[in-house]
Design a protein that fits this description.
Layout: H1 3-14, H2 17-20, H3 25-37, H4 55-71, H5 75-94, E1 111-115, E2 120-123, H6 134-149, H7 153-172, H8 176-183
Antiparallel strand pairs: 1-2
The protein binds zinc ion (ZN).
C-alpha cells in the first residue's frame, strides 16, 4: 500500500475523536498521519518493511499508549497513542499488499512485513495487488474522506496534499522501476 494510504488511515483512526473528545481530534489526526507515514522511512536506508516496521512491538506500544491516554487524557498522551496505533495498523496492513520486488505487480516476492519477535516474514496477501495499484488509490480516497470532511486546517491540507501525491504516484507507478534502475543504481 502507498505511504499516503497509511497516512490517511491514521487520520481515519482519529476520526472518532471529533465526536468523543473534539479538543484532542486535531492532534490525534496529525499524530495518526505521522504514525502512518513513519515506518516507510526505512525505504531511505535499511531493509524496507523490516528496519522500521514493527507489527508486534508497535501493537504492544499502542495498547500501553491507549491505556495511558484513557487514564490521563491530554494532548501528549493522545498524540502518542494515535501515533503508535497508526504505525501498528500500517505494519499489519502491509501484509495485505504486494511483496518487496522492484515490480510488485509481477508477484515474484512473498515478503509482506517482518515480525521481529517471531523472526520471520509474514506472507504478502496481495489483496491490494501492489502499492500504487488502482485499488490502492480507491482505498486512499476512501480513507481521505474523514480528513476532508471532519477536519479543517492542517489536517485537511495534509489530506489534500497526500491525495494529490497518490494520484500522481498511481499514474507513474509502473514507470518507476525503469527510472530507478537507470538513475539510482
Ligand atoms: Zn510499510
Amino acid at each position: 500500500m502507498m505511504n499516503t494510504t497509511h497516512a490517511a488511515m491514521g487520520v481515519t483512526l482519529a476520526a472518532p475523536l471529533t465526536a468523543l473528545a473534539p479538543e484532542f481530534a486535531p492532534i490525534g489526526a496529525l499524530a495518526g498521519f505521522l504514525g502512518g507515514a513513519f515506518p516507510d522511512l526505512d525505504l531511505l536506508s535499511g531493509q524496507h518493511r523490516q528496519t522500521l516496521h514493527f507489527p508486534a512491538y508497535y501493537s504492544a506500544a499502542a495498547i500501553a499508549a491507549v491505556t495511558a491516554a484513557l487514564l490521563a487524557p491530554g494532548l501528549g498522551t493522545v498524540g502518542v497513542a494515535l501515533f503508535f496505533v497508526s504505525a501498528a495498523v500500517h505494519c499489519i496492513s502491509d501484509a495485505a499488499g504486494g511483496g518487496l520486488e522492484l515490480r510488485p505487480w509481477k508477484a515474484t516476492d512473498d515478503r509482506g512485513v517482518y515480525v521481529h519477535p517471531a523472526g520471520h516474514w509474514v506472507r504478502a496477501r496481495r489483496w491490494i495487488r501492489y502499492d500504487g495499484a488502482p485499488e490502492d488509490l480507491l482505498l486512499a480516497s476512501a480513507f481521505s474522506l474523514p480528513g476532508l470532511v471532519l477536519f479543517d486546517g492542517v489536517v485537511r491540507q495534509l489530506t489534500i496534499g497526500a491525495l494529490a501525491v497518490s494520484v500522481v504516484y498511481v499514474a507513474v507507478r509502473k514507470r518507476l522501476p525503469d527510472l530507478e534502475t537507470r538513475y539510482l543504481r
